[in-house]
Amino acid sequence: MKKNLILCAVAGLALAACQPEEKKQEAWVSHAFDVALHQAKEMSSLMADSAGRMPRSLYTGYTMDFLVEQMECDSTVFIDSLLANPPKEKLGKLRACSIYDWTSGFFPGTLWYLYELTGNDTIRQEAVRYTNRLYPVRKMTNNHDIGFMMYCSYGNALRLSPNDTIKPVLVETADNLYARFNSRIGCIRSWDFGLWNYPVIIDNMMNLELLFAASKMTGDPKYSQAAVQHAKTTMKNHFRPDYTCWHVVSYNADGSVEKKQTHQGKNDGSSWSRGQGWAVYGYTLCYRETKDSIFLNQAVNVADMIMKRNTPADLVPYWDFDAPVKGDTPRDASAAAVIASAFFELSGYAPDGQKYFDYAERILKSLSSDAYLAEKGKNGHFILMHSTGSLPHGSEIDTPLNYADYYYLEALKRYSDLKK
Ligand code: GLY
Predict the structure, then answer these.
(1) Closest C-alpha to ligand 1, atom 1
(2) Measured by CB atoms within 10 angstroms of the end CB, which terminus of the chain is less buried, N or C?
(3) Extents of the domains making up the chain
(4) Strand order in 257-261's β-sheet?
(5) pLDDT digits (tens, 9 = 90+) for 251-291
(6) Is 126 touching ligand 1 by the criterion CB < 6 Å?
């Protein structure tokens, strides 16, 4: 292992005072920790020899009839965007990804949360090992997702195991994210692919956390100033009067809007569930970092919209709030986990925060039930079942996703802290 890759070997000492919390927890929370620990340990040993790879999901397939029914469109819409069905022998098997995939930080982050929740030292060692795998990602420049990738992994490493070798990695990544900020447009560019002039997706709100952290680490306000400007521009252009949001807004060079579209939702005007989750999470974190009430108001308005528009009785959203509701309409447990985690944090800031806490607790109990929480040793070693990655691409429909697991554990952590 390279010298500068060594994360704090004494992280166990840093958390030595942190007792395992299971005994103090409600039974359903203890059960969730138990399952999560078991699954993550198995996943960790399964992936041990897969250098440069991370677990992402399980392969799923689709039929065109099903996609057409869910999208309420005709099949020609899919021609450019549809992924090929995986070969039969791959269905239900592990879909691993490269460290350069947007989801690569979530498995290390899951291990860090599990370490924080249980104090289990084996998990700490695994968290260090998988975080180190992402070291080359600090050089990546072609995507906004470096915020997700490095802050969920190295960011949690720094929080739980403060060590000066981690900071330069995060600052280098933040510099690459900051380089994607265009001050004329007032936003960070999300993607370098596609036909858009300057695409910005609502998901990008999540990457701002790295920029706020970089300002604190370096003392240079430029990162947080860019984050604030991005959040304000996004507030102006991404949201509809009812506080639902578009997925993609693309800009012209002068900052005017080129297009408002979807990429992973049902249609341009629909409310893609995970996107609504990214929005409430993003504005809640902006309020945490700035204490500017415009961000709190935005988070509250989006949260109230979600509570109106998320219709299933168990509060685990359909993949899109506007999807036709049929027996087989897929849920998105990842959106549920993101919303629950955001709502727990928001409950500490909003004047009537209790309602967000209660709502998030209901989501968490649903996700911790047999309907969504894996049986130990099943579900391909992932923790949650029933998420949807991108239905319009025919990709990852009704399957486990590594980011559902990450935000579920984060929500459990926030819940446990609030209950103390
Ligand atoms: N950030 C990509 C997604 O939410 O699917």
Answers:
(1) 203
(2) C
(3) 1-17+99-165, 53-98+295-420
(4) 199-201, 248-251, 257-261
(5) 999 999 999 999 999 999 999 999 999 999 999 999 999 99
(6) no
Q: Which amino acid is at 357?
A: F
Nearest partner of 392 among 247, 205, 290, 285, judged by Cα: 247
10-residue stretch averages of pLDDT, the chain, 420 residues long: 40 44 76 97 98 98 97 88 95 98 98 96 96 98 98 98 94 98 98 97 98 98 99 99 98 98 97 99 99 99 99 98 97 99 99 98 98 98 98 98 99 96
CB contact at 8 A, 56 and 96: yes
CA dist., res. 72 & res. 263, Å (int):
15
DSSP 395: E
Atom of ligand 1 nearest to the CA of 278: 4
Q: 79: Cβ–Cβ under 8 A, 6 or more apart, which residues?
A: none
Residue nearest (by alpha carbon) to ligand 1 atom 2: 203
The structure's pTM equals: 0.95
89 token code pair: 């022998």
Tell me the residue ranges of DSSP E strands in 85-241.
Answer: 94-98, 181-182, 187-188, 199-201
Give, for 251, the enclosing helix (H) or strand (E). Answer: strand 248-251
Q: What are the tokens at 108?
A: 């290390």
Could you report the per-residue pLDDT of 63-94, keeping only the tens digit for each?
999 999 999 999 888 878 899 999 999 999 99
The best mutation among 206, 393, 396, 403 to test binding of ligand 1, ranked by most ligand atoms within 8 Å of the C-beta, falls on: 403
CA 172/CA 174 separation, integer angstroms? 5
* d(CA 206, ligand 1 centre) in Å: 10
322 CB-side CA count, 13 A: 17
Distance of CA 271 from the midpoint of ligand 1 (Å): 14
Report the CATH number of the 53-98+295-420 domain.
1.50.10.10
